[in-house]
């Protein structure tokens, strides 16, 4: 009986010493900052595309204190403001630009639906960015149960692990 009690105490001590909660890294969270007067449909399209890829986003009013940052702006053409004339998206980490894309209306061509342009840029500018993918991978592997995570629930699911 004493042997059993001592064995159980040793097991409890060993299990208690193997806590991994201090080693678990958070998934990268991207702060999203709007620059200038951007139409709500552009913002909705951008946020929808980010969320459809399970990217964790937080809209913020300024860039202070964000490790990962996405800034964006867009302008619209006259006379009816129905067409996007220009747009710019910048993805950075700790104030170092990782990816940047501008959409000036080349040759006067205007865009009525910016969704396709936004989707393509998120894919190439964020989801294929090695530094961002590495941060996701480190966060996932830091979890003792990472094999149980459904890959489609992770940011940019088609690009990692």
**What's the number of structural domains?**
1
Can you tell me the overall shape?
elongated
In the sheet with the most strands, the strands line up as 2-1-3-4-5
CATH class assignment: Alpha Beta
Notable traits:
33% helix; single chain; five-stranded mixed beta sheet; 161 residues; alpha/beta; Double Stranded RNA Binding Domain
Describe it.
It comes from Shewanella corallii. This is Lipoprotein. Helix 2 (40-52) crosses helix 3 (115-127). With 161 residues, this protein is of the alpha/beta class. The protein has a single domain (29-141), classed as 2-Layer Sandwich (Double Stranded RNA Binding Domain). The protein is 33% helix and 24% strand. Strands 2-1-3-4-5 form a five-stranded mixed beta sheet, with helices on one face.
Compact overview of the structure:
By secondary structure, this protein is an alpha/beta fold. It contains 4 helices and 5 strands; from the N terminus they run αβαββββαα. The chain has helices at 2-16, 40-52, 115-127, 130-141; strands at residues 29-34, 56-60, 68-76, 84-93, 96-104.
What is the strand and helix layout of this fold?
Layout: H1 2-16, E1 29-34, H2 40-52, E2 56-60, E3 68-76, E4 84-93, E5 96-104, H3 115-127, H4 130-141
Parallel strand pairs: 1-2, 1-3
Antiparallel strand pairs: 3-4, 4-5
């Amino acid at each position: 009986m004493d042997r059993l009690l001592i064995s159980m105490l040793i097991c409890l001590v060993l299990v208690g010493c193997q806590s991994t909660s201090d080693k678990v890294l958070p998934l990268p969270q991207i702060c999203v900052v709007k620059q200038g007067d951007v139409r709500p449909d552009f913002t909705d399209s951008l946020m929808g595309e980010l969320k459809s890829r399970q990217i964790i986003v937080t809209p913020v009013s300024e860039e202070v204190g964000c490790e990962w940052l996405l800034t964006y702006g867009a302008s619209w053409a006259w006379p009816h403001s129905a067409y996007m004339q220009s747009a710019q998206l910048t993805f950075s980490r700790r104030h170092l630009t990782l990816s940047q894309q501008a959409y000036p209306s080349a040759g006067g061509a205007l865009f009525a639906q910016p969704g396709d342009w936004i989707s393509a840029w998120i894919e190439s500018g964020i989801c294929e960015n090695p530094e961002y993918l590495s941060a996701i991978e480190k966060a996932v592997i830091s979890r003792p149960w990472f094999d149980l995570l459904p890959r489609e629930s992770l940011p940019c699911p088609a690009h990692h692990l």
